[in-house]
Write a structure and sequence with these properties.
This protein is of the alpha/beta class. About 15% of the residues lie in helices and about 25% in strands. It has two domains: about 50-200, no CATH class; about 205-345, no CATH class. The protein has helices at about 65-70, 100-105, 155-165, 250-260, 305-315; strands at about 70-80, 85-95, 130-135, 140-145, 175-180, 180-185, 205, 215-230, 230-240, 275-280, 285-290, 300-305, 325-330, 335, 345. The strands form five sheets. The chain has a four-stranded mixed beta sheet with strand order 3-4-5-6. It has a four-stranded mixed beta sheet with strand order 10-11-13-15, covered by helices on one side. Pfam families: Germane. This is Germination protein M. It comes from Litchfieldia salsa.
Length: about 350
Amino acid sequence: MRNKTKYTIASTVIASSVLLSGCGLFGGDQTMEEIDPPQNESYTDDVETVDQEKTEGNTDVTNDEEAAQETISRELYLIDANGYVVSQAVDLPKTDGVAKQVVEYLVDGGPVSEILPTGFRAVIPRDTEVSVNMEGTTVLVDFSKEFTEYKAEDEQKILEAITWTLTQFENIEDVEISVNGHKLEEMPVNGTPITEKLSRANGINIDNSDVADITSTKPLTVYFIAESDGNEYYVPITKRIDTAEKDNVVAAVNELIKGPGLAGNLFNDIHGEVELLGSSYADGKVTLDFNEAIFGSFEEKMISTHVLNTIVLSLTEQTGIESVSITVEGEKGIVNEAGTSVSEPVNRPEKVNTGSF
């Protein structure tokens, strides 16, 4: 879980950003084995970290067959057929050097080639070599000269894919990039400035289409749905909202109701007639009260899986929000398509797009 500080409804919260649902909404059960130190198996309590002394990794094994069988699920931010940077959960070999490993799996033509989901591609240029070190909560990634050989239109995607892949680990807050030991102050092809450390605060798949004056806005990341090769998955989109909006919960729900707008090849199951009647926050949990339009086409009092998932993913991107519960016109006992109550707290999944929705 990436929420670290307390969220307060009445004050501004920076929605910068990215846990198995208590209702099992986001895929099958998984057991997360933590890196260091060892932790228990409770998804709501576990925190995945990177050992600062093991970022380079030790690939020596005494039993190749046993090592080949040991894998663990990681999130790789890849590029989909529509050009969006999207998390995909994949099984990678267990290693001490997890930070280096996940970046190496972002290299085109590298080991990721054997496990790429259909319609997705890696974005770091082919043959790029990687070294990784930690300084506090910052991961320093140094690339070989091949890193500079990419298409200009991929430049922002490269930054987002690297940043969001590495910050899946709890103790990595931000990223610095260098090439052959020289820290980058701007990207080498299209000149995108890197004036600060890279973090999730920079956003992902940024949509400024409705913004006239970006200086009076702040970022807010919400999730919509895309489809590739018959598979549906969730795409984070960073919108810009007016800084005068103090309640980011209301703002996020309103963005979901508005839908993806001009963003191509995305959709949302929340109908335009849906209204948020009220919201409250306590101890990491947000409770939302909607009108009956939230049921969509269901005749029974039931909320679709996609509606629930996009709400939970979007709100738990906000700092301090750990779970969401839903009532309809004050009535509890609302269920999802599986018949499970969503008036009880629903947590963010440990991995978002597992391919098992």
